[in-house]
């Protein structure tokens, strides 16, 4: 599923890949509509329907992920509202073992996330995730989301990597397709990003796993290879 011997760099999504997507799903689908309705004295269900429709209209753009954009548009403090449910931020299964395996194998691990810097700071404070990887890049620093093919060429100005020796792991098929189009040699999908939801169907052209224990044995084998 992954040819570890041919890799130098592993790009990792954060939400839904390393961290449980349940936090974000709960925030955007439940907590934000509830608190927004309370703040502006609106009908809860109508507010939820309207907000979700508004948010979905921005899907795939940088605005979709932008805390500043939604704070301005909705006249609420998104970062503060996220902090209210910060106890829901947590790791997906086997992540610590996987990240430790990447480090033991001598692979360069870089989180490449669409998460805005403000909620990113909250998540790092809650998890200490930054202590387990070599680097973190937010797409907001580059001005375009990972879904944009040009993102990857811009990323190469911040991170030194060879596309033919790089793996991208993400729970978003559009992101993985973008990475493939940009020449990233190996892509791996996370099919169970949200612990409260059933796994997604497999992609016809991208291998997928539910949890990292499915690929840990092959990663650990790399440690014994002369090239490692």
Automatic annotation (TrEMBL):
- GO-annotated biological processes: DNA repair
Record's Gene Ontology CC terms? Answer: cytosol
Enzyme Commission code(s) on record? 3.1.3.5
Q: Name one GO molecular function term.
A: 5'-nucleotidase activity
Supply the alphabetized keyword list: Hydrolase, Metal-binding
**Protein name per Swiss-Prot or TrEMBL:** GMP/IMP nucleotidase YrfG
Taxon lineage: Bacteria, Pseudomonadati, Pseudomonadota, Gammaproteobacteria, Pseudomonadales
């Amino acid at each position: 599923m992954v040819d570890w011997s041919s890799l130098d760099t592993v790009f990792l999504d954060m939400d839904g890949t390393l961290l449980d997507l349940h936090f974000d799903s709960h925030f955007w689908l439940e907590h934000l509509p509830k608190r927004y309705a309370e703040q502006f004295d609106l009908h809860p269900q109508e507010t939820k329907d309207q907000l979700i429709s508004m948010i979905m209209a921005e899907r795939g753009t940088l605005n979709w992920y932008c805390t500043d954009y939604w704070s301005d548009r909705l006249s609420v403090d998104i970062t503060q509202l996220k902090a209210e449910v910060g106890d829901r931020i947590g790791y997906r299964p086997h992540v610590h073992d996987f990240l430790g395996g990447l480090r033991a194998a001598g692979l360069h691990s870089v989180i490449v996330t669409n998460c805005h810097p403000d909620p990113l700071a909250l998540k790092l404070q809650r998890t200490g995730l930054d202590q387990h990887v070599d680097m973190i890049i937010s797409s907001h620093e580059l001005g375009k989301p990972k879904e944009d093919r040009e993102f990857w060429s811009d990323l190469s100005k911040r991170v030194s990597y060879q596309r033919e020796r790089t793996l991208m792991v993400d729970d978003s098929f559009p992101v993985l397709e973008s990475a493939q189009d940009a020449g990233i040699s190996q892509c791996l999908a996370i099919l169970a990003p949200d612990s409260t939801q059933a796994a997604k169907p497999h992609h016809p052209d991208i291998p997928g796993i539910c949890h990292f224990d499915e690929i840990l044995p092959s990663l650990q084998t790399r440690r014994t290879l002369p090239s490692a």
